[in-house]
């Protein structure tokens, strides 16, 4: 039995919740009667409720995010119907800002903001039987130097099997209107000595997979250098993920990044748009020349694998403008280009554009845009399918030579837009398309534009570049019998980026 259960539904099994571990670490004398239970979205909510309630908790704290909000609402209903005496406390970004677009009325308490201190105080009052807190508790920002850090509460199982999430700071100095981080523009840092001490403890326990959740890892160069130097001293294999701003890579940082081996460093680069007028509309500062230079450097002089973000549906951004962004990014970088759909999150100031640009969003998570005055609902649906097929075909790394041929005339967006519409007509789906089936679709589509044997050979090179794959049956009918099928093995960790450099 445990008095307090801390839980959430992660997007994937490999993920861990840093927020739950912060709450757990700061429960003080209540910690010995608390337990963390993590689940995965799209699981049976009744089974989750069963596993929570078998501990007979008096309090259940649930972290709520955009990806699990609907599941959490159902989970809360189940818990309260089965065990109405159990106190349910919600926290996290999805309940911290109004309007709440998912019904959480059955929850007993909601903590908005940073809950490390407030959650402990609430639990103590409830367990002591003298709680006088309001249902919605507005929690102030905590002092990072005065709370207990959560890293000792990653289990050995977590370290061996899951991503280890860490943060050296909170806040973001920028004011991009689509992002919740813009609400907290004041940066708060841990002491770099304290932070590296925690990283080293995790390293000594065997952690090798670190994902930094800081929104702007490279904003404070002295901290970035200290962290990169720490890992460069290690001889073992490891994987690091950082979110970076694209225009702040001074020479001293470049020299360090160049030293990382392939497969060890991943950078999530927030571009969103390269249209200066659109960027101005959403309060995003762009230094285009710096961005171009840095992307070129990262692509040509480092082994860093990049995820570069572009958004469809920003206020005043047309499809044609988005297409120009994509065409330009393709020439600047060998990284994956993550095509995202604009979402209106509660707490952001995006709603000020609603009337001006006719912005219409779904009322259900993830609150994605449905249409605006510049992009119709039908076009937006096409663009959502474009994004899905782009991920399957281009970002997967499975068809590098094929897409290079498709884009050889420089019309990246135009050509892939046409392909994506054809793929949807042909497949009537954007999911559960196998590698062999997609290869056959690409052959069918591109055979109308290129020599059949040429495209067959290129698709075969793509499909067979990872050892152990079998030749798709449709290609056996086309490729000459004396074709040399021996292909070099390319490791999964870095195949996407390395192949683009060939």
From TrEMBL:
Residues 158-387 form the Radical SAM core domain. Pfam families: B12-binding, DUF4080, Radical_SAM. InterPro entries: BchE-like, Cobalamin-bd, Cobalamin-bd_sf, DUF4080, Elp3/MiaA/NifB-like_rSAM, Methyltransferase_Class_B, rSAM, rSAM_horseshoe. It comes from the Bacteria. This is B12-binding domain-containing radical SAM protein. SMART domains: Elp3 (SM00729). GO terms for molecular function: 4 iron, 4 sulfur cluster binding; catalytic activity; cobalamin binding; metal ion binding. It comes from Arcobacter ellisii. Coiled coil: none annotated. CDD domains: radical_SAM_B12_BD. Residues 2-133 form the B12-binding domain.
